[in-house]
Design a protein that fits this description.
Radius of gyration: 20 Å
Strand order of the largest sheet: 7-6-5-9-8-10
Structural class: alpha/beta
Shape: elongated
Helix content: 25-40%
Distance between the termini: 52 Å
Largest sheet: 6 strands, parallel
Number of strands: 10
Order of helices and strands: HHEHEHEHEEHEHEHEEHEH
């Protein structure tokens, strides 16, 4: 049986400050927990119904702490409108040191959780394991972001840093800023390495960042839409620009 203290702790992790205070976040649902179990993430505890334990728990559970929970109790700790059989309490990995990379994405002030989740899925699709975000970008461990990633979050790491300073100091990889009036991305040679910078959903990329990028690129417009969704633009550029 789950205790009142555990319920309070898990529910507190809906708040970003609490997540970073405890260095923990919550993963919910059969699909998400299945992807979690394939990863190297450290699991504190899994709270699951008998259905999940009988049908989805790994064969070797000796290293996992799995607590049986009723559907009623699961609803008390779940952040989903319809709780989905299983919830895991997970340790945040260390994401302070940005690794070397061949290709990566950089995000300037992406605010919508769904957009960030979709961008993480797109990065995973194209084999990009590194995303560099400024501090104003929505938190990757926001529950809505996690759900939108459909498990790709366990294969793609988001690093939060002073993005302007990082780009200024980055000299080994060319940076491509996605803007409205740049060079036609369809006419550029494909690249095997680079950093693609995507801006805020409404304001675009901060001008200070653009000034320090090597290239300004655009997706050619054929209709009358004011702009493209940030995640959609990311997918098109990755498909067009990267080998």
């Amino acid at each position: 049986m789950i205790s009142k203290a555990q319920v309070k702790h898990i529910r507190s992790l809906d708040d970003k400050k609490k997540r970073y205070e405890y260095k923990q976040f919550v993963v919910e649902g059969i699909k998400m927990v299945d992807e979690l179990l394939k990863s190297q993430y450290e699991i504190v505890e899994i709270f699951a119904t008998q259905y999940w334990i009988s049908n989805h728990a790994p064969t070797d559970i000796s290293k996992l702490k799995i607590s049986l929970i009723t559907e009623q109790s699961l609803s008390r700790i779940s952040g989903l409108k319809t709780p989905n059989e299983v919830l895991a309490l997970v340790v945040m990995p260390d994401a302070t040191s940005i690794p070397n990379f061949d290709k990566a994405l950089a995000l300037d002030n992406i605010q919508d959780p769904g957009n960030l989740g979709s961008i993480i899925r797109i990065a995973d699709w194209f084999g990009i394991s590194t995303i560099i975000c400024n501090a104003q970008t929505v938190d990757v461990y926001n529950p809505k972001v996690l759900q939108a990633t459909m498990g790709s979050v366990f294969r793609v790491t988001c690093y939060y840093t002073d993005l302007l300073n990082y780009i200024i100091q980055q000299t080994s990889i060319k940076t491509y800023a996605a803007v409205l009036n740049g060079s036609n991305v369809n006419e550029m040679e494909k690249i095997s390495n680079g950093l693609i910078l995507i801006g805020n959903e409404s304001a675009g990329i901060d001008e200070k960042l653009i000034q320090h990028c090597d290239f300004e690129i655009s997706i050619p417009q054929k209709g009358n839409a004011e702009s493209l969704n940030a995640a959609v633009a990311t997918g098109i550029i990755c498909n067009t620009l990267f080998k």
